[in-house]
Structure formats: C-alpha cells, structure tokens
Design goal:
Blueprint (H helix, E strand, L loop, with lengths): L16 E4 L4 E3 H11 L4 E6 L2 E5 L1 H4 L2 H4 L6 H16 L6 H6 L4 E4 L9 E4 L3 H9 L8 E2 L10 H8 L20 E6 L2 E11 L4 E9 L2 H15 L2 E3 L1
C-alpha cells in the first residue's frame, strides 16, 4: 500500500482459506485485511460495488486528524454514549454513560416496570412529538429491516411493544418460526406481525412466501410499498 496505493483482497494472491462456514468462506488475504482494519492499521479508502479497497491511514486521513492528541477517558465515554443513542435513538444507558451526557438526554416514561429506564437525545424529542399524536388512520403500514434500530434490542422490543422478534436467516430451516428473511410489520404504534418475501429480479417480481399478521390488508399494503421501492411487482 505504501508503494501501490489502495488494495482489495483480490489483489493479494492467496487461495488459502482462513475460515469456512455454511454461509461464509474467507481467504487469508481478506481475513488479514479485516484484522488490520479493526486494529486501525489500515482504513477503507473507497468501495467499488461491494468490494472494499484499503489503504494506510496517512493516505486516507488528513494530517490534523492523524496528529491529534488521544482523547481522555471522559471524552471517549461521552462520544460512545452519544454514538449509542445516534445508532439506536432509544437506548438503555449505563451509569457512567448517563453521567457523561446527562445534559444532552431525557428519560422516557414507560408503563411496564420490567423495561429498563430508557433515554433519548434532547435533539430527537421534536421527532417523537408528531409520532405521539399519530393515529392508525394517518400511518401507513411499514415493513422494517430485520436489524432496524427500533427492534435491535430484543428485550426492549418485547417489553415496549410486546413483540418478540428474532432474525432467522442464520437458523437451520427446520427451526425457523417466521421464515428465512421475515420482515417485522409496523402499523402506527404497534407491531402487527411479520412478512417473509423474496425478490425474483429476473422476473421483476416480489413474491410473498409467508405472513402472519393481524391484518392481511395492511400486510399487502406494506408489501406493495416495498415492491414499488424495489421496482418490482408484488405477487401474493
């Protein structure tokens, strides 16, 4: 990289496998680049489709960043606490995290005593207010991504919305209760089920594999919306 510039795993001549799973097979070259990235020895310079090109930090970051002093423990705690809230918007904060950003967050009242105390950034409150007064009539049913921040924490999703959801893409087929890529179905303030769909791009179709919902009409509306977003026609 010092002499040639950005490199991807394909540029490293190595056919030896670092690990092999049913859903993954990684070469030594790719695994080494990933480890160097996690340790900050290389950074992602750019991407071409799904392929990452790595380069030395001094080739990617400006000198002002590279020469900056190391943050203090307090600054690190503050940054990580804000990062958690930016990623999930609604989060349980540890005592040290709450002390670090106490002036920047507010607690959220939850009726269920079993749910840990939640906090939200003050800057996000204005987004909660219109949601609080929204009704089913003004909300369209939506299909969420399996790792959407709103359901990322299964314990909170179960406690807040009584919705026990698990992404089953890595589970053996015979153990799946919802489906390979079942998407949570949200309508208004409630999760009303899940839908498993599959895209057949060669045929231009989004096919319904299975669904479990308290409203078939809402499920179909959400599927049609997803199909339109993907440029496909929904098939039920």
């Amino acid at each position: 990289m010092a002499t040639e510039g950005p490199l991807c795993s394909q540029d490293i001549q190595s056919q030896r496998k670092a690990k092999t799973h049913a859903w993954d097979s990684t070469t030594i070259g790719k695994s080494t680049l990933q480890k160097l990235f996690f340790h900050g020895r290389v950074l992602i310079a750019h991407r071409e489709t799904n392929r990452r090109y790595y380069d030395l930090p001094e080739h990617v970051l400006p000198a002002s960043i590279l020469n900056a002093s190391m943050p203090t423990q307090a600054e690190t705690t503050h940054w990580l606490a804000l990062l958690k809230l930016r990623q999930h918007r609604l989060a349980v904060l540890k005592a040290a995290e709450l002390r670090a950003i106490a002036d920047e967050v507010i607690p959220i009242a939850v009726k269920d005593a079993s749910v840990p105390r939640l906090h939200v950034m003050r800057s996000d409150v204005e987004m909660l207010e219109p949601a609080a007064i929204a009704t089913k009539a003004t909300c369209k049913p939506l299909l969420l991504a399996p790792l959407d921040p709103i359901i990322y924490d299964r314990r909170l999703a179960d406690g807040l919305w009584n919705f026990d959801y698990r992404w089953e893409v890595y589970m053996p087929a015979h153990k799946r209760a919802r489906g390979y890529y079942a998407l949570p179905l949200l309508h208004g303030h409630r999760f009303i089920g899940h839908v498993d769909v599959k895209a057949d791009r060669s045929a231009g179709l989004l096919q319904l594999v299975s669904q479990e919902s308290s409203s078939t009409a809402h499920a179909r509306t959400a599927i049609k919306s997803l199909a339109a977003f993907l440029g496909l026609n929904a098939v039920f």
